[in-house]
Amino acid sequence: MIDMATMPTETQRGPQIVISTPESVFPMQFEGLESAAKDYIVQGKPLSDLATTVQLFQRLDKNYDGFITAAEFSELLTTTLVELENQALLKQQYALVEQAKNAATTTTGAPNSRQLQTGNVAAHQVQALSPDECMKLTVPEFYCSISVTCMSSCAGCGWKSVEDREFYICVAPSATSCATL
Length: 181
Prior knowledge:
181 residues; mainly alpha; two-stranded antiparallel sheet; two-stranded antiparallel ribbon; 6 helices
């Protein structure tokens, strides 16, 4: 069992990875990132449980040219890993809440709240994360609907790169959204 309390955080690991990555791997193609990321663990979970390799590549390829440069890697890796770490922690918190709900149901013999629907819920009805949850974090973050994650900056949210500071969501650049910057 991995003791998460003794594991370095992604804030610590990210810069170490940047420093130890040889310049010869840049510009990095998708296959290079895929190979490097395949066994990476964040908060005891495989990276693949938090984001696909495609999503990770898109976050790091700032100019969307199909290659990750050393500058992009250096600038975005740590931030991206911290965002994924926050996502993993949020999932762990949800799991604990669900365990507590299930324990309350089991010990009382009856659910502690009225259930309007039983059985399987359609996939479109389940949303693991919402903008409100990102806004309620200790340090409010922006909700990216593309990756369904909370981010400290919308720079990694694909084409929704503008930060709406009123609702804490990432939005597409437009005359209206950019005018409020």
